[in-house]
Amino acid sequence: MRFQQTGAVTADAALPAPRARARTRPRGRLVRDLRDRSGRVPRALTFAAGDLVVVSGLPGSGKSTLLRRAADGGGIDSQDTRERWEARMPRVLPYALYRPLVRLAHYAGLHRALRSGAGVVVHDCGTQSWVRGWLARAAARRGTALHLVLLDVDPGTARDGQRERGRGVSAYAFARHRRAVGRLVAGVEAGRLPRGCASATLLDRDAAGALRRIGFRGPS
Q1: Where is the composition biased (Low complexity) (predicted)?
Q2: Domain boundaries along the sequence of the chain
Q3: Domain 2-77+119-216 CATH class label
């Protein structure tokens, strides 16, 4: 089944699905809620050529797993940059000492991807609102759109996800993430999208697990 919403986002589903809880906001801003759909969810999210997509959620919610499985080109994920640097660094060297270099390398890679003009899927931790602002400005310069894909996972499940991958964040950092992501979810549920976003899609763990592609249509 294929259905089109606002001409910007296409969702492909393997099974007939009930009507998504979606509202068209002023200026074409779309909120689509794919949570609690009992498995009847799209298998793909397809955006217009050249659009930018930011995937956000709590640490351990499954953002990196989703990008690696579904994002065209694997997406731009700071976790990938961190793992490349960790492979080159002495194991006894704490990550905190070279973390600024990892972040610099990640943002340099993102800058190169944005300059290419191609559609890009980007990992976002949720606490760096300036990154979404950067992406919104980049989309505006291109004449394309920025879209938010937001994983709404409860804190306990996210903590389990951190343990499964063998890497967690401090209690203080996790609390910051909870506040930031909580504000994002509440805003999207109320139809208030982050500035510059043309659409937002809310996913729970089941909906995220069903996605097999986040990608872009070819140029018209």
Answers
A1: 1-19
A2: 2-77+119-216
A3: alpha beta
